[in-house]
């Protein structure tokens, strides 16, 4: 689960991290009050969407101007103008894709006098099973670009969970960023604060880009992007309350209600599979035969008929889907349960596109009999390769 920048900064502030003062707004008429509350003389007006590259982004609507999704305002009137131009308009960045995201919230923040910009992030390193820090002197840039062009400017280290963060970790960050004096001392405190927040809130990723040194010599978190481990959200109702569903795909929201692992993709073949490994193999083989999957959907190893029905409805609700592949290898999951779920869903929503079903494993013959006797126009398949070829062929013939 992701949250907005202003929400991330509020979380980090709870742990003592240095953040600038700011006010979120949801309507253009709130801009003047926010600007006056902060006092100026410089304000930063920031679009709040779940995507990076906002400053370099472009709005689709001409009325939104040409200054991107993060703007420097030098008067209250400019704050008001930017708010009118940005709210309700669609911002396109490298991370949003061409469709962009509608800006429904802004963060009006006091300006900062920046001396230097750095990059700092914390994430779970699966290779070491530890929490890792990634720091670089190249703040304000895409870290992927830095890694590709100047990898030597990136420093990484992990924290032993037995000891937690120690003073030497802060010194490592200070040395990597070339900090000295007060800023170096602040780095030790900041590293401890960020690590504490990461662990306490079950974060999956915390990215600060940029982390700055002000002209006064102080460290400050100028931007923050945070995502949380969805499996741990039951422990954090205060974080769940920050969820902005307008930033998420409605199909993914619906899938989460049934505990379905669903991710929308850009292709035309909808997939319903049990098991993440089999699901990935199904996506790959569809790609191998020249088409693209419309989703990743793992119904799990013990799905009920209701869950299967919900999964099928989510797939058919996607207008991009021109064909559906159901690929089930029954272990704990029984093929007859899948069959009944598919039939219930088809009867409820109809079937307007080709459907290929491959069943194998527990109760496979019962499942095949149920589908065969249903009277539905279903294309049976013997194995994964056969299923992939049949759904690709059916989609192409239907065009």
UniProtKB/TrEMBL annotation:
Its cofactor is Mg(2+). Binds 1 Mg(2+) ion per subunit. Residues 9-254 form the ATP-grasp domain. GO terms for biological process: succinyl-CoA metabolic process; tricarboxylic acid cycle. Substrate binds at residues 274, 331-333. Mg(2+) binds at residues 209, 223. Keywords: ATP-binding, Ligase, Magnesium, Metal-binding, Nucleotide-binding, Tricarboxylic acid cycle. One of its GO terms (molecular function) is succinate-CoA ligase (ADP-forming) activity. Its EC number is 6.2.1.5. GO terms for cellular component: cytosol; succinate-CoA ligase complex. It catalyses: (S)-malate + ATP + CoA = (S)-malyl-CoA + ADP + phosphate; succinate + ATP + CoA = succinyl-CoA + ADP + phosphate; GTP + succinate + CoA = succinyl-CoA + GDP + phosphate. ATP binds at residues 46, 53-55, 109, 112, 117. Pfam families: ATP-grasp_2, Ligase_CoA. The keyword Transferase does not apply. Pathway: Carbohydrate metabolism; tricarboxylic acid cycle; succinate from succinyl-CoA (ligase route): step 1/1; One-carbon metabolism; formaldehyde assimilation via serine pathway. The keyword Magnesium applies. Heterotetramer of two alpha and two beta subunits. Succinyl-CoA synthetase functions in the citric acid cycle (TCA), coupling the hydrolysis of succinyl-CoA to the synthesis of either ATP or GTP and thus represents the only step of substrate-level phosphorylation in the TCA. The beta subunit provides nucleotide specificity of the enzyme and binds the substrate succinate, while the binding sites for coenzyme A and phosphate are found in the alpha subunit. PANTHER family: SUCCINATE--COA LIGASE [GDP-FORMING] SUBUNIT BETA, MITOCHONDRIAL, SUCCINYL-COA SYNTHETASE BETA CHAIN. Belongs to the succinate/malate CoA ligase beta subunit family. NCBIfam families: PRK00696.1, sucCoAbeta. This is Succinate--CoA ligase [ADP-forming] subunit beta. It comes from Propylenella binzhouense. The gene is sucC.
């Amino acid at each position: 689960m992701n949250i907005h920048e202003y929400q991330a900064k509020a979380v980090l502030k709870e742990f003592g991290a240095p953040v600038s003062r700011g006010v979120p707004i949801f309507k253009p008429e709130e801009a003047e009050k926010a600007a006056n509350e902060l006092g100026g003389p410089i304000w930063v007006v920031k679009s709040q969407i779940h995507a990076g590259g906002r400053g370099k982004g472009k709005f689709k609507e001409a009325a939104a101007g040409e200054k991107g999704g993060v703007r420097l305002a030098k008067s209250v009137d400019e704050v008001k103008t930017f708010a009118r131009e940005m709210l309700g308009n669609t911002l396109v960045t490298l991370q949003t894709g061409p469709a962009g995201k509608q800006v429904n919230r802004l963060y009006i923040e006091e300006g900062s006098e920046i001396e230097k910009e750095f990059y700092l992030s914390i994430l779970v390193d699966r290779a070491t099973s530890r929490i890792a820090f990634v720091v670089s002197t190249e703040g304000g840039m895409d870290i992927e670009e830095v890694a590709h062009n100047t990898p030597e400017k990136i420093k990484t280290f992990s924290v032993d969970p037995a000891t937690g963060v120690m003073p030497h970790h802060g010194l490592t960050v200070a040395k990597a960023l070339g900090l000295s004096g007060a800023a170096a001392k602040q780095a030790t405190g900041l590293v401890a604060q960020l690590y504490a927040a990461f662990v306490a809130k079950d974060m999956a990723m915390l990215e600060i880009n940029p982390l700055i040194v002000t002209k006064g010599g102080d460290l400050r978190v100028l931007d923050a992007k945070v995502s949380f481990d969805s499996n741990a959200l039951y422990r954090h109702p205060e974080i769940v309350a920050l969820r902005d569903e307008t930033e998420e795909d409605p199909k993914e929201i619906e899938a989460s209600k049934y505990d379905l692992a669903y991710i929308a993709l850009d292709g035309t073949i909808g997939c319903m599979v049990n098991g993440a490994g089999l699901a990935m193999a199904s996506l790959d083989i569809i790609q191998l035969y020249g088409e693209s999957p419309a989703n990743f959907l793992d119904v799990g190893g013990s799905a009920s008929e209701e869950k299967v029905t919900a999964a099928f409805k989510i797939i058919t609700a996607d207008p991009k889907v021109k064909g559906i592949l159901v690929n089930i290898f029954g272990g704990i999951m029984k093929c007859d349960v899948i069959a009944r779920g598919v039939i219930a869903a088809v009867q409820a929503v109809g079937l307007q596109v080709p459907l290929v079903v491959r069943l194998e494993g527990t109760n496979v013959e019962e499942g095949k009999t149920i589908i065969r006797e249903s009277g539905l126009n279903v294309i049976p398949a013997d194995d994964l390769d056969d299923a992939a070829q049949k759904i690709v062929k059916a989609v192409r013939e239907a065009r």
